[in-house]
Description:
Blueprint: E1 3-9, E2 15-21, H1 22-35, H2 51-61, E3 66-69, E4 91-93, E5 99-101, H3 102-154, H4 166-188, E6 228-229, E7 233-234, H5 241-245, E8 251-252, E9 266-269, E10 275-277, H6 278-288, E11 303-305, E12 321-324
Antiparallel strand pairs: 1-2, 3-12, 4-5, 4-6, 7-8, 9-10, 9-11
Amino acid sequence: xxxxxxxxxxxxxxxxxxxxxxxxxxxxxxxxxxxxxxxxxxxxxxxxxxxxxxxxxxxxxxxxxxxxxxxxxxxxxxxxxxxxxxxxxxxxxxxxxxxxxxxxxxxxxxxxxxxxxxxxxxxxxxxxxxxxxxxxxxxxxxxxxxxxxxxxxxxxxxxxxxxxxxxxxxxxxxxxxxxxxxxxxxxxxxxxxxxxxxxxxxxxxxxxxxxxxxxxxxxxxxxxxxxxxxxxxxxxxxxxxxxxxxxxxxxxxxxxxxxxxxxxxxxxxxxxxxxxxxxxxxxxxxxxxxxxxxxxxxxxxxxxxxxxxxxxxxxxxxxxxxxxxxxxxxx
Length: 331
């Protein structure tokens, strides 16, 4: 039988040639082809189930909660509307500091009022139906009381009874009463085959809707009079709107002319609508509480801190994790 040399690497670094049969080589190669997979694409030879393999299998299985870290492209800029996510042309701000396009927030308020009116109309209709149903039930109970009274009055016998036929008549009356009771009970049983007659098929009860319009971001009551107009100071007044939106740095502070962005905390002054930095508010404006643009006196409510987006860094204080909850298989 022919033999072939085989190279075996030892611990000391040199190779030792041993002779093995060709039949042994063919058997081993065939067994390896059957059991082993392609190591270049699927790392199945390791004894440890790695974290990346677990994430890959979880994504492919469709089970388990997945979380993805968001980047800067997925975060809203400080001068963009919270509804349309586009740079504002006519911006307004709420007392909580959320910026909206005037057209978008007015359309939202109008839509919410229309929905509230529809829900209130359906609630009033349900209320009238419940009142009429209660009237019918009370009238039916009164009718049943009158019928039972008339039946009892009609069963009173004024003439003497025959003692020889009284037992038979009583038995017949009891059997007729049992038959009538069984008939009424069988007719009162619900039908389990018709959906509208099943015991569980009950009409949904509507709750009384809230008449106040809520802010889509903060969830607090929002009125049209609460909106404050915002005036941004452009970096270059000579640029038109299209050229201004193409720039990364578009607006500056109205007092210090510092460049505004997501990394710079900003505030809106209610009397003038000017946008300034929080640093300017703390160091300059709070000393005399006077609006530097209009000259009006300020209060704490007149200084609205603008809610800005994140910067892509974890230290910005914005939640940068997006989670998707999916079903979990438990053993």
